Amino acid sequence: MAKTVEIYTDGACSGNPGKGGWCAILLYGGNEKVLAGGDPDTTNNRMEVYAAIAGLAALKERCVVKLYSDSAYLVNAIEQGWLDGWRRNGWKTSGKQAVKNKDLWERLTELLRAHAVTFVKVKGHADNVYNNRCDEYARAEIGKL
């Protein structure tokens, strides 16, 4: 039976584009692992997607994952089928424009095949302790750049 893991993610950016930070907090069996990093020239959306990639990439075996994010861009791309549509349309949006952040979406697609992932949208900057902590870590990473 696969392990069940919760992952909370967030991304932040100072300027958009600008300096960015991301964080993923993994929870399993009473244990917690915090991953965080930054990029000197990025966008908020890239940091949001990268946080999910980092969290999923840290898993060493197939897991059942609930991934929590305050990013409508990330959650809707999965839960509303945008990602599937982009792939079917040769990485073009419904408006025939090139999909932004294709490199990250391709990597996320690989990781989604490796795990059973459900995405959950949480309200940002509200009362979710782990989302707020992710935001703090992501913003701290910006300060390191």
| Helix run count | 5
| Amount of helix | 40-55%
CA-atom Rg in angstroms: 15 Å
How are helices and strands ordered from N to C?
A: EEEHEHHHEH
Question: Termini separation (Å)?
Answer: 41 Å
Secondary structure category = alpha/beta
Low-confidence stretches: none
Beta fraction of the residues? 25-35%
Backbone shape:
globular
Give the mean pLDDT. Answer: 96
Biggest β-sheet description:
5 strands, mixed
Q: How many DSSP E strands?
A: 5
Lateral arrangement of strands in the main beta sheet: 3-2-1-4-5
Written description of the protein model:
The structure is a single chain. With 145 residues, the chain is α/β, with parallel strands linked by helices. Helices cover 40% and strands 34% of the residues. The chain has helices at residues 44-57, 72-79, 82-88, 102-114, 129-144; strands at residues 3-15, 18-28, 31-42, 63-69, 116-121. A five-stranded mixed β-sheet has the order 3-2-1-4-5. Helix 1 packs parallel to helix 4 (102-114). The relative contact order is 0.25.
